[in-house]
Design brief:
Strand order of the largest sheet: 1-2-5
Oligomer: single chain
Bound molecules: zinc ion
Number of strands: 7
Distance between the termini: 29 Å
Helix content: 25-40%
Mean pLDDT: 91
Shape: flat
Largest sheet: 3 strands, mixed
Radius of gyration: 20 Å
Order of helices and strands: EHEEEHEHHHHHEE
């Protein structure tokens, strides 16, 4: 439930009609897209978890990946990460279309982080999320609100407000990024 509508495109249309929408798609009138942050994905980097058989430590590569993908610790083959696969597919002769985009994190994940709760589906998180959504038509509208601080200031503890605003301003990262089936670890702040 907390992952519905994570990726979408905002189109410039003259009116809300079939023809207007289909024309906007055909003529590429995309204002911006919203994307899942690839570094949060479970196979962003190439590597092996520390709890694998024959492992004492974590092995993660962001560059200089062994060509045969052989893990130096357990000798088994590693899955090539999404980042490296993209780099391999990159055609230097093709100029990609430049388009505005935003990265979204599910609000429940931000709340779980702020309240120091492991599970974004925990009851406390769901309750706070439900309370907040009484004041906004949707979570997307929530993130798109200008002066968001003013609107949520009295609804949440200051630390939570600060971290939500930081996410809205793009001040977050996934450190370490996802690898070998583990999601990237969210860190909010510069
Ligand atoms: Zn290994």
């Amino acid at each position: 439930m907390n992952r519905i509508g994570r990726e979408f495109s905002v189109l410039n249309v003259k009116e809300l009609s079939y023809h207007s929408i289909i024309n906007a798609i055909r003529e590429n009138h995309v204002q911006f897209t919203a994307e899942f942050n690839p570094a949060e994905g479970r196979y962003f980097l190439t590597g092996h978890r520390a709890d694998r058989k024959g492992h004492q430590t974590t092995i993660v590569y962001s560059k200089n990946i062994p060509e045969n993908l052989c893990c130096p610790q357990c000798g088994k083959k590693m899955n090539l990460g999404v980042q490296q696969r993209c780099l391999n597919l990159q055609d230097k002769n093709i100029r990609p279309i430049k388009r505005d985009f935003i990265h979204l994190i599910p609000l429940t994940e931000v709340l779980a982080y702020s309240y120091d709760i492991k599970n974004p589906n925990a009851k406390k998180v769901k309750t706070v999320f439900g309370e907040l959504m009484r004041y906004f038509p949707s979570e997307i509208a929530f993130w798109q609100t200008e002066n968001l601080r003013e609107k949520i200031d009295t609804l949440l503890p200051e630390k939570v407000v600060q971290e939500i605003i930081a996410v809205q301003q793009g001040k977050f990262q996934f450190d370490p990024p996802g690898y070998d089936g583990i999601y990237g670890k969210l860190k909010i702040g510069s």
